Amino acid sequence: MTTGYRPPLVVVDIVCDVKGRGSYEVRQRLLGLAKPGHYEPPVYHMRTDSGGIVRYSYCTPDFMMGTAMVEARPKSDWAMISSQNRSHGVIFAGNPVAGILPQCVKTSNNRAYNTQWSVQKKGTLICQKLKYGTGAGPMRVWFAGDGLSEPVEEKNWVFAESEGAYAAVRIVAGGHHWENSTSEDRGKGKWLYCDNEYSPVILEVDQKSKYKSYDDFRAKVIENAFAYDNHVLQYTGIYGDAFTFYADYSTVPQINKSSVNYAPNMAFDSPFLKSTWNSGLIHIQKGTRSLTLDFN
Which has the closest alpha carbon to 224: 207, 209, 241, 210? Predict the structure, then answer.
């Protein structure tokens, strides 16, 4: 209303056609690593040879789930503008605050740095608190009170459902306890705390349309292959992907026996947005509509 700018029709189509987009994966290679000695303000010097971050999202009409996959590195490896208050987890359709979000308590001015590392494929996410962070208190998982059912526990898993999706959370090592939302939290809900703050946490989410019932989903999750020995988690998720997660930070996580690549060839990679790293060309497409942006 105040400018002559109008978004291209292909962008409008992508934004508005939620159901038509279907289910898809998004990978983005991002900058985040700092040159030695230049990770603090006032001036950041970024490494451009390897950004060190793969931002991964799995999008469906019923939920969106994402994380920033990074190596387990010391705080000083990351520009502080990159490592501050990173967030990940799942947001469900039908309610703007309905989510399940693994995060650490922020102990200093509502700020925490380099708190977790993670690995994700489709609707399966594994994450863990890092010992290299700053301002990070106990590890916990947020369950929203609006848009989600009351969590139920069954055989080491915690289950909940939204309007169109089922979800499950497992604390891998040690027990857990619940705490209700306090006045400083946003919205209604409760926290699932890890009694072992460095335990890996598994989050599984899938669309209801793929299951006969809530019982069917819970049974499938409980039957997933699971082993945790000598700080190595071997787990096969509900989408059939096999994960190896090293809770001692010794090795990069693996998905289907392949190590996570933190420097992929593509800067943007999804069905609708593609760009080769450092090419300066962004290709946008949906159906018969397309647009190429040339930043050269």
Answer: 241
pTM reported for the whole predicted model? 0.95
pLDDT tens digit string along 158-190? 999 999 999 999 999 999 999 988 655 567 899
Cα–Cα distance for residue pair 64/35, rounded to 1 Å: 33
Distance CA 186, CA 163 (A): 21
Q: Given strand 89-92, what is the order of strands in its sheet?
A: 176-180, 189-194, 136-144, 99-106, 89-92, 63-69, 53-59, 24-30, 266-269, 273-276, 281-286, 289-294
Q: How far is CA 263 from the centre of its chain?
A: 18
How far apart (Å, rounded) are the C-alpha atoms in residues 288 and 177? 52
Q: Which H or E element spans position 82?
A: helix 80-83
**CA atoms within 13 Å, Cβ hemisphere of 34:** 20
* Tokens 């703050």, located at residue: 197
- Rounded CA-CA distance 228/244 in Å is 10
Alpha-carbon separation of residue 114 from 80, 159, 284 (angstroms): 9, 28, 32
Measuring CA to CA, which residue among 225, 174, 229, 166 is closest to residue 201?
174
